[in-house]
Amino acid sequence: MLIGKVRTLGRHVQCRVAHLFTSTSNMAKSKFEYVRNFETDDTCLRNCYIVVRLDGRNFHKFAEQHKFSKPNDNRALGLMTRSARSVMEELEDIVIAYGQSDEFSFVFKRTSTWFKRRASKLMTHVASQFSSSFVFYWKEFFGEQPLLYPPGFDGRVVLYPSNRNLRDYLSWRQADCHINNLYNTVFWTLVQKGGLTTVQAEDRLKGTLAAGKNEILFSEFDINYNNEPVLHRKGTTLIWEKREETVTKSMKLPNEEEKDVAVTRRRKTVEAHHCDIIGDQFWEKHPDILEDDTC
After folding, report:
1. Distance between CA 49 and CA 70 in Å, rounded?
2. Looking at the predicted structure, is the pLDDT value of residue 24 above 50?
3. Element (H, E) at 251
4. Taking Cα atoms as reference points, which of 158, 105, 93, 130 lies closest to residue 289?
5. CA–CA separation, 211 and 159 (whole Å)
């Protein structure tokens, strides 16, 4: 009799617990779910390239405190590229990325459905992957030099409906790379080799055009700007390319013996280019980057 009562009580407790969880779940769903109505619909327009651009937050201070070389620090540029490659390897719908200085732009293909094309999801994923990679790979480029504090990157999302619009955007960023690098090259040459203070160098360059800056470099310091590293002048373009690789596999032969055999296969990898992307040559060489505008 006692055993029967215990069993009955156990079933009663189980039913009460089940009822409690069911009621709580239903209550939460019916009473609190309305807060989702406050979320903004940020779905990106279809048939548009989605560009996520990251910029280093207060990187002037970051570069000073970490003693970056001027006008360009190849360690920092290499780390930026490695971080961008990590983003592309994580998000394979990115068809091309372009970076210079402390910025990188990532282009998602027009037909991408990653994260249901939600701008906030795409931007935060790119920003977090890039930032964590920057910290993760720091030692690979800076060795034992310590990372004094975490870097920050802000982001924005812009949509471009046509191939022409997208190419013009990337051309704008590469033109910006040239303008900034030419100025910085002359500025720091005047300071480091010409003995000017930063204020004097700034005054010297006020009102000068590209031809004037080139003339200062060539006539006063025997520097031909066109011979400066193409990485600094053109920035870095990352795209997917197929590469052949040879791996060794252990294979069992008909006579039961195992033998190491070299196997060649093709796989997609992210490759870096330092070249002009304003003209047509790059795009004609890599026609698979852009989608058909007539679709």
Report:
1. 35
2. no
3. strand 236-252
4. 93
5. 35
